[in-house]
Fold each of these.
Amino acid sequence: EDQVTQSPEALRLQEGESSSLNCSYTVSGLRGLFWYRQDPGKGPEFLFTLYSAGEEKEKERLKATLTKKESFLHITAPKPEDSATYLCAVQGYNFNKFYFGSGTKLNVKP
Amino acid sequence: DVKVTQSSRYLVKRTGEKVFLECVQDMDHENMFWYRQDPGLGLRLIYFSYDVKMKEKGDIPEGYSVSREKKERFSLILESASTNQTSMYLCASSLRQREQYFGPGTRLTVT
């Protein structure tokens, strides 16, 4: 069964405490893996696209990596403004089908 | 920057009313999507359109219909609103098979 699993469900960090969020998938024929940030009551904001194992993308304190079965979103020295829910989505053989994970809710305390 | 706008941020409707949610994108994207997002259930695809007047059912199309008369506009219609359609509705667009860009969402409450 095609699915995307994110862990942990929730993560509390102190400001400056680096950590990683995980997105594992069993979707056949990976076309792309996408990371989004979602603030409460708002739509998801696009962060990164990864297309193949070994690929990495960076933006400020965030770095996304991809292996054959999972992706990590590394957060280096997070700040309170990084607090949000981070969603992972995978696109398989069917280009128009995106499988979303349930998200990791990140809370960064000052 | 890609911009996806939705007609309302908050909407309150009564059971049985016909409800229209509108979405407009300004980047000439071929694909447009409607999702609903509920706690514990994540994002679920309602309908998808890959061209003007073309549509495909998603995972939960029952009770909904869509209309795409112009490339930039994609409407979601609740034919007869019910309380179980209370949810956050999210519109998204994408260029061919690339990443999706989402609108701000419409929080719909059906009483």
Amino acid sequence: QKEVEQNSGPLSVPEGAIASLNCTYSDRGSQSFFWYRQYSGKSPELIMSIYSNGDKEDGRFTAQLNKASQYVSLLIRDSQPSDSATYLCAVNDSGGYQKVTFGTGTKLQVIP
Amino acid sequence: EAQVTQNPRYLITVTGKKLTVTCSQNMNHEYMSWYRQDPGLGLRQIYYSMNVEVTDKGDVPEGYKVSRKEKRNFPLILESPSPNQTSLYFCASSLSLTATNEKLFFGSGTQLSVL
């Protein structure tokens, strides 16, 4: 069973701080990595995707990928109360399988 | 508006009473999938379909059936629901997961309670 591991949290950060969310995965052949945000009672929505080692920035969000360490992270700069949600790490399986494996998610709380 | 539509949003039923949760997408997506979400267990894949008449099991297929007779529709069928199928269900679609940058579009979810 391919696994995606996340700390369930909650991760509490003050407004304006940097929130750092981490994810490890077991499938060494995975090529595509995603961060979805899920507000309570709502469906997940994609906020970042990353495919190459290094950093990818989009506004206040930065995704970081280290394939050698099988590690993906999401940094949220200038955190806002509206960022309070559960963040799901997702990994496309390798080997041509049409499957995305999700982590259990990290709950982020931004304190005003 | 591009979207994945699931119905119903909430459903309460009793053990053994067959039910169907519908899912429809208007984006001409090839790939569709069903997930269930439970506290502490995250999103787990039930079944997926790569195209019309092509379906395959995910991680937790027991007790569920699906069909893909048309590209836009992918209903989830519970022939004899049991209380352990009480969960939040999501349908999702994607143009194709063989492309590395394809994201999943999710429906709004169906909260199912089996008494």
Amino acid sequence: EPEVTQTPSHQVTQMGQEVILRCVPISNHLYFYWYRQILGQKVEFLVSFYNNEISEKSEIFDDQFSVERPDGSNFTLKIRSTKLEDSAMYFCASSGQGMNTEAFFGQGTRLTVV
Amino acid sequence: GESVGLHLPTLSVQEGDNSIINCAYSNSASDYFIWYKQESGKGPQFIIDIRSNMDKRQGQRVTVLLNKTVKHLSLQIAATQPGDSAVYFCAENMRSNTGKLIFGQGTTLQVKP
């Protein structure tokens, strides 16, 4: 069964450092997403990406965040200068269509900023 | 504003019983809803979805009910098993062609043997 894969599973970084979280979406999907989940809280939308550009982003997704699809398979989330409050699980997801279709989630990357 | 909420943070049921997990959503423009299951340390796993032109949809051991009049969504799990223990989230898509999902707070389902 096709799945979304994320690496690394756990990333520890010092405050102020840049991190790149990596994702390989399901191969024939066209819509890609990043969500985050602070420990014990609900899953929050960060950004959606389609046709090589951001289609929607939340208030959380400020100038410190960026996404990229550097090749035909990877989808990355970069945080330029991490803050303590960026510590969370980051989930990548993909779907075949934008509207009214299920999104498949990866296992997540746990980001710990110290 | 945008919000999807769940009525109870924790639901404890006996193995073999039926479980009902509820969700209230606030945006009447939402037209697509999904239930996700999240086990500890894992990503959300799709369970079942429903579009706003339906009021009921059944899967294997699961049923989702949608009441648009009161903006209420529920997930029914028949013959609950220990493997059903997880956090359950409802999520809504508010007619966004980007596929953005708004998640509720989550209900922890505990299945007692």
